[in-house]
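Slide 14.
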Amino acid sequence: MPSFGHRGHHLPDPSTEPATRLPTRLLTFEQATARVVATLQDPLPLGLWAVTRRDGDQQVFIDVHHDTDAAAAAAGGAYDEVDTGTVVAWHGSMCQAMVDGAPTITADARTVPAHAATRPVDEWPVRTYLAAPITTPDGDLFGTLCGYGPHVRDVGALERMRPVVDLLAELLGQVLLSERLRQDADYREAHLHQLATRDHLTGLATRAVLHDRLAHALELHHAGARGLARLSADTGCPVYFCDPRSPWQRGTNKNTNRLLRQYLPRAADLRLLDQDALDALAARLNGRPREVLGWRTPAEVYTAATTALEKAATTVTLLSGALTP
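Slide 15: predicted structure.
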């Protein structure tokens, strides 16, 4: 058989080439931001790298990666107070100045009037600053990818990193676009499911759905899980037991464990923590913005839900009183 190309070089046989495994799902925005800020600390270690979101008059730090170098930590101790979930005022921030036209990089912020007048320069303090805006699919400002350092740095090193930061910020914007497309697809799927399982006039579950719900409840009942069977029958929420070694079946559980590991490493001795320390950790997690909640915190969502329920209960009580003869 004739060979092609240079002598001694043959075309690869596809049957003998190892199969390339493609990811089954794209990175979420939360996963992408975590990788970006962690990766940037390697070529250019700063006091911290962060992805932030502008929320009205506030700037929310949705992912933060600190420099682990002891000298940098000692020089910028105030940086430790900035963590994922930290909220500061947008007005007067270096990122606001950058979005409004101030330089995206500075080796010494004290020498740039637009940055020198901002709060972080004096409060943290900040000398080195490198940032790029992150835009939404609509072209609006989502937030920033930014790095802050307590020391004056070589401007040449910052200039070499500028295109990398710009590219990563642009890619994060593309991840936002994919998230929106994914959410639109999920909404359409949920809408089609509702059309297939709900009566279009009354909105009540169809006979087929009620049959499946009863069958599921009976299955749980026979398995000895009577309490779960009652819960499933009353709420229409299916209950199932995860298979062993199948973490993808309990994503919320695994994600929460991952967040806990940021504060409690596997080697941590829980016996050294009192109830106040555990309550503080729970409050920190409940005050941490979540992508799945539209970057709201669990505490905000819970408060909004309970407030709505209280208003609904009050309305029902008032109506019942008005209708009672």
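Speaker note: The longest helix spans residues 155-197.
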